[in-house]
Amino acid sequence: MNTHWLPRALATRWTVVAFACLLGLQLGVGSVRAQSDNSLSNAQKKKLKKELQQTYKEGAKAGNAENYEVAATRFEESIELAQKLGLDDLIGKIENNLIESLKGAGSAALKQENYTDALSHFKTLQEYTDADPTVQYNQGLALINMEDSTEAGLQSLRQAIEVGNEVGNTRVAGLATERIRDEFLARASKALQGDSPSQAQIDKALSALDQMTEYVEPNADAMFYRGTALYESGQYQSAIQAARQGLDMHQGSRSDAAKFHFVIAESQMETGNKASACETFANATYGDYEARANHYLENECDDV
Q1: Cα–Cα distance, 103 to 212 (Å, whole number)
Q2: What are the Cα distances from residue 95, in Å, to 14, 15, 158, 185, 204?
Q3: In which domain, by residue range, is 235 found?
Q4: Does residue 191 carry a pLDDT above 70?
Q5: b (16+ CB within 10 A) / e for 216-253
Q6: In which element (H, E) is residue 213 found?
Q7: Is 120 inside a domain boundary?
Q8: TPR repeats at which positions (predicted)?
Q9: Are 2 and 113 in contact, with CB atoms under 8 Å apart?
Q10: Residue 76 lies in a domain
Q11: What's the CATH code of the domain at 240?
């Protein structure tokens, strides 16, 4: 499942900054004259100040109403007006609100599965911030859901991991890591569908799992699929090793752990180690593997 953020507490932030901006415009006439374009007349400056006040108010109002696209447009206009007036001390504050508006617009587009618009908002965001991993993360979600953009999405998610670790946002780094894993696990699972996957299917699954390691470390599920693929290809000792690695990583329930025991037991049976296999099948009699494990115990292990 894709997880994204919609900025919160924006109303309070925008109200405070709006007050600061308006206060600066009311009291900072001298600084405006000193910093603005000397070609502007006093009448032009006064007109631009009123326009700035109005566009900023409209942006704050739209943001408080969660109409983020309108808010972003108004804040962009406010920045242009502030630049003309030379209000450098206010530009940064307005940009902060523009950033929050673009995040909100992008997240709303993601929620609506409008990935093209979401991508546009997050790309614009990168012009204003390069230290927020949620930008790369949400951009990655948009790309990975667009046709022919999966690789670009994975690259963006990897950037989210790097930036998240650099700035201490381990939550986003962790979510990006899991989303990358999910992509390759889905490929491996799809390749191994059916009772007797072909060697081409097996190779496709193993290739997906190998590609995963180029981005993130494998987890328990990755080792399960690797063990399953190796078992299907007749590499039983390697299958046992992979499944045991997955079992060591596993932190879930006994029912979920049964799948690792089942791969190990089937591989042991194929290598002729029947006694060990039957002992291992006993640990696989839970959840989805209960019936299959019991079938082995009742039909293959009655003489052990």
Answers
A1: 28
A2: 11, 14, 26, 39, 47
A3: 218-299
A4: yes
A5: bebbbbbbbbbbbbbbbbebbebbbbbbbbbbebbeee
A6: none
A7: no
A8: 220-253
A9: no
A10: yes
A11: 1.25.40.10
Counting the structural domains of the chain, the total is 2
CA distance 161 to 176: 6
Q: 158: closest CA among 146, 147, 143, 148? A: 143
**H-helix segments, the chain:** 10-27, 29-35, 42-64, 68-85, 88-111, 115-125, 133-144, 150-167, 170-191, 199-212, 220-232, 236-249, 254-270, 274-281, 290-299
| C-alpha dihedral sign at 131, 135, 141, 142 | negative
Cα dihedral sign for 195, 200, 203, 207? negative
pTM assigned to the model: 0.83
Q: Are the beta carbons of 259 and 224 closer than 8 angstroms?
A: yes
Q: Which residue has the higher pLDDT, 33 or 37?
A: 37
For residues 225 and 207, the answer to whether their CB atoms sit within 8 Å is no
- DSSP 3-state of 66: coil
For 205-255, what is each residue's pLDDT tens digit? 999 999 999 999 999 999 999 999 999 999 999 999 999 999 999 999 999
Does the pLDDT value for residue 164 go beyond 70?
yes
Alpha-carbon gap, residue 58 to 52, rounded angstroms: 10
Among 112, 135, 165, residue at a domain's last position? 112
| Domain annotation covers residue 140 | no
**Sign, CA torsion 88/33/57/117:** negative
Q: What is the CA radius of gyration of the chain?
A: 29
Structural domain includes residue 130: no
